[in-house]
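Tutorial handout. Part one gives the primary structure; part two gives the three-dimensional structure as tokens.
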Amino acid sequence: MATNRLKFSNRRVADLDIPTDRAAWFYDTQTPGFAVTVSPAGKRVFYFVGRIRGRPSRVKLGVFPAVSVDDARVAVKVNAGEVAKGRGMSERRRAGRATLDDLFDHYIRVHAKPTKRTWERDEREYNRLLKPEFGAVPLAHVRRIDVEKLIARIEDDDGRGPARKARALLSKMFEVGIAGGWCEANPVRGTRRPEFDPRQRYLKADEVAAFVKAIDELRSETARDFFRLALFTGARRSNVASMRWEELEISLGLWRIPALKAKGKTAQPILLSSHALQVIQSRRNNGSPFVFPGRGKSGHYAEPKDAWRRVLKLSGLSDLRIHDLRRSLGAWQQRSGASLRTIQATLGHSDPSITARVYSPMEFDQVRAASPAAVGSMLGATK
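Part two.
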């Protein structure tokens, strides 16, 4: 086993030499226990390497570049803390005492928090859908038939969407558990996946005026501009909230969402309409790297829950969600004559079938244009 040592960075890990015969190991000089392997195929995998009561232990943390050096370094420190507390994963597995709650704690700390921006959503879904019935159950006692019954019950009680989320989360937990030595099999494999039932809610012609009027009445200028930009760009709210000035090319009317922030881990260019540019330019010289600065740790605008509740109250649109603003741009693009391929590119869908499932059933008179006409049509409805 090679003992190459260097201070890890994303660039240095990407530039590591590819071995010809078997995987090479490299160790970080800054964080003890932090290692990366490079296979002859060029695959780079991060590991935590430590000793539990004198016995060597290795925990797979993720594959580069999907997992960055900084994210993997955090996961290493988490695992080192577990070792210091005497909570060896292999020992818990051999003793047969690990429960699903134990596995979820491991999943959150070594996978979700270091690699996912939406880890808090996983926490909410687990506590609501999985923990009440399975939390205290030993992992060895979770059978495939139990998973099938649970998913069927969630589907009956809460709908297909929550059932799909619960199944996906449970499956990922077991996959992470297998890699970490918590369990040997994934009981979710082979179970029925609830059919996708896409939500098709969007702002209709008789609703746009009430919605825009409600935004205009908000006291917070940041909230007003945030909702406008979410509507005008069709971008995900997390991307709008964390928009940075360096991502914008105002002269070209272009916003480039970096791969690390995009849902599909692929950089997404967004062409900005004149309405979107007007909102952005009105916020220049705010002294922050973010278009929407905030007071929290992230430095940018966070969840606009209170402002959204105010919008719903003022507009009377109780069944509307923030994500429906994204869907509204796609729907109005289709109404303006845009093809499904154009809508896919605008919204950054990685799979065209996602666009087709949501927008194909919508029947509209075909006219002739895309985003600028769609935004113009929406605002025209306010008159």
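Part three, for discussion. Strands lie at 4-6, 24-28, 34-38, 44-52, 55-64, 248-249, 254-257, 268-271. The longest strand covers residues 55-64.
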